[in-house]
Write a structure and sequence with these properties.
The longest helix is centred in the first third of the chain and has 29 residues. The radius of gyration is 19 Å and the shape is flat. A two-stranded antiparallel sheet has the order 1-2. The chain has about 210 residues and is mostly helical. It is built from ten helices and two strands.
Length: about 210
């Protein structure tokens, strides 16, 4: 459905509108979790900014890639998410004070043989899927499209790892999701200003809305 809507609304504007609809529900869920009263503001700010950059990039790139490459290719690269999370989680961990430790004795997740085998299998499967799509589709996939697709899954994987580190000391995933999405929305709205200026709501079909 998004791919059809993106023919009438620019990805930046579409993303900004989508997040605006989601924020009240995310805020309500975060309020129910209770983190607003318990977490320290400084700690929230320390984690929210990098999380917002990561998840904001993922939010935006998924629609940019959808418009450029189509929903099929966007779906093809999503299996890389757990692969990237597993690899990154094996190199980072959190200390007793909530700080980030690289290549320490206690990583976020240990890389077992089974996980390593899964990483290889999923990576090979994704490469084959992209190659098959390139062979059987007119025009194929450009290097830029591949870069954007990988940046989308890479951004969301980074957010997932940051969330895992933050919740070691502050167990409020819904709160972090709400705050990072709120900050990301502010940045995406700024990026989307040119798209909003040229958008004509009356010419957009109801299906896109």
């Amino acid at each position: 459905f998004s791919h059809r809507a993106l023919k009438h609304v620019r990805p930046t504007a579409f993303c900004a509108l989508r997040l605006a609809l989601a924020l009240p529900f995310l805020g309500w869920n975060a309020r129910r979790e209770g983190g607003f009263e318990r977490a320290r503001a400084a700690a929230l700010a320390m984690w929210t900014v990098p999380m917002a950059c990561a998840i904001g990039g993922a939010y935006l790139m998924v629609f940019v890639c959808n418009e450029r490459s189509g929903a099929t290719l966007v779906a093809c690269v999503q299996p890389l998410l757990p692969v990237l999370v597993a690899v990154m989680s094996s190199f980072v961990g959190a200390d007793a004070n909530g700080g980030v430790v690289f290549c320490g004795d206690k990583p976020l997740e240990r890389m077992t043989r089974l996980k390593a085998c899964g990483v290889v299998v999923v990576f090979i499967g994704t490469v084959l899927a992209l190659r098959a799509y390139e062979i059987f589709t007119a025009g194929g996939v450009s290097v830029l499209d591949v870069f954007l697709l990988l940046s989308q899954v890479g951004s969301y994987s980074t957010y997932a790892v940051l969330l895992g580190l933050a919740t070691k000391k502050y167990p409020y995933p819904a709160l972090f999701l709400f705050l990072s999405t709120l900050v990301a929305e502010c940045l995406i709205v700024l990026i989307a200003i040119p798209a909003f200026r040229t958008m004509r709501p009356t010419s957009i079909p109801a299906s896109a809305w």
